[in-house]
Specification:
Blueprint: H1 27-38, E1 48-53, E2 59-69, H2 84-88, H3 94-112, E3 123-135, E4 144-157, E5 163-174, H4 175-189, H5 203-213, H6 216-221, E6 227-231, E7 238-245, E8 249-254, H7 259-265, E9 270-275, E10 283-287, H8 297-314, H9 316-319, E11 328-329, H10 347-366, H11 370-379
Parallel strand pairs: 5-6
Antiparallel strand pairs: 1-2, 2-3, 3-4, 4-5, 6-10, 7-8, 7-11, 8-9, 9-10
Helix pairs in contact: 3-8, 4-10
Length: 382
Amino acid sequence: MENEPAHGVQWLSAIFALNKGTTKTSAQDTTKNWVALKKRKVSAGFISETRHQITMSKDFTFAIKSICFDEDYRPSDNTRITTNFANLARGSSRRENLRNTLRMIDNRFNALAHWDNPKGDRYAVNLEIISVEINIDGERNGNTLPLIEILKTNILDRKSGERIEGIAGNNFSSYVRDYDFSVLLLEHNKNQPEFSTPDNFGDLHGKLFKCFVSSDTYKRNFKKQPVICLSVSTSRTYHRTANRHPVLGVEYQQDEYSLTDEYFQKMGLKVRYFMPPNSVAPLAFYFSGDLLGDYSSLELIGTISTMDTFQKIYRPEIYNANSAAGESYQPSLKHQDFSLTRIVYDREERSRLAIEQGKFVEKNFIKPYQAILEQWSANYAL
């Protein structure tokens, strides 16, 4: 991947498609487009790919593609349509949504990177949407499926003219995760007196993620391991500690991991919770190395400013609350004392589409390749 964002990248091997001129998309629509595109002989230009053997007759490739997230962004035909950035970029308010979001990110970055920045306008954050595709059969038939989407930050220093590479990860969207949480987990707990998780829940997803991150494809395109930054769980209580980082802020801890924490642990990721300066709630940072030692202050600020902004938009009850988290804090989406941003976001549609896309992945990825995936997962080791 070049340092400059890939403006206008054309993703030709489309699977998911948004209805033109509408703001609603169904699983049936995406299935029709996937079937239609399977019949077309198109070759997708991508940054790089790497192949991993599954059986003597089956293998798969990872392909990475990139598109710039700016005020002109329109969701690609094969973007995971439940992602927050795709949700923001549809409808009549799309351009205003994007412009306001990007302005919020820049303002947050400059507020945190305040040294040698007297006017608060030294830095700008450029974002790339990174899409990872998987092809179970290698290059023989072109049956690709989107696997995950992440964000990559790049920081422009207007004073020096330097472009600083940021962190990959940040937001995290996954088709298999949609299936696990929105299909498999719901079916498993249907009509059950107590909540539980299926056997080996998250194992396949975790191994696919670890395989991708350890691949030559990832290493050729990204200098450092990813950091994923999400909301804290509404089912857990977090306790403030005395530990304070100059950029990440005050650290919180909890007594018991959430289901999401355990799921990400199977991806090879640890978690720490920090409430950055001038934030009102802690963020969950998932990483594999040393969060405090492996990344520079500007790299961490790029992630904080990006994800703090997204959380204010789609979880304002927690991250745009009118009072900050105290020493003991349990987040709640029922909290009423909060402020709305001027950005239009459809949270209900996002939840509905996660179920539809989870079922789509079950039909077109999990079930057709179940035996292959189970064999690969059972034998996979880094």
